[in-house]
Amino acid sequence: MIRVGFTVNGRSVSVETSPTRTLLDILREDLGLTGTKEGCGKGECGACTVLMDGRAVASCLVIAAGLEGRDVLTVEGLAGDRIGRALQDAFVEAGAVQCGYCIPGFLMAARALLAETPSPSTEEIREGLSGNICRCTGYVKIFDAVNLAARRLAR
User: Fold this and answer.
1) What is the DSSP code (8-state) at residue 80?
2) Residue closest to 91 by CA, chosen among 155, 146, 153, 49
């Protein structure tokens, strides 16, 4: 067992856990942050995407031993974030949400994209979200939502 200290959504946390346990499991089971979903468990679907030190990562692939001192932002932390709030509103308005399972991962990937590229082209949006899979909504509405949020944030 190890004890790791890191920040989640602006709050310092310390967790005693196995060094090989995933960030996804720690978020959901230890910290009660269940917005992050497990899809494939292999880092291929994007459902578990969070931001770690500002970069989108698959939380199912991040092990506890690598968390010390890191800054993690989850979908629960987007409500207090200007870009995150704009994205959430745009996803609802554009009808980019169906079952909702993949949406937290898409929101987090889009948050990372807009922080790095405030006015992305359609191709940049496609590229920025390429690690996320949706089986219900269809990508056009999701891409439209990211574009809508970017336009609103540019004002």
Assistant:
1) G
2) 146
Average pLDDT over residues 36-49: 96
* Residue 60 to residue 79: CA distance in whole angstroms: 23
What is the three-class DSSP state of 76? helix
Query: Which of 69, 88, 91 is CA-nearest to residue 79?
Result: 88
Checking if the pLDDT of 74 tops 90, the result is: yes
Q: What is the mean pLDDT of residues 68-76?
A: 98
* Contact present, 73 and 121 (Cβ < 8 Å): no
Q: Which two tokens stand for residue 70?
A: 């890191």
CATH for 77-154 is: 1.10.150.120
Mean pLDDT lowest among 20-29, 59-68, 79-88, 131-140: 131-140
pTM of the model: 0.95
The CATH class, in words, for 2-74 is alpha beta
Q: Domain map of the chain by residue range?
A: 2-74, 77-154
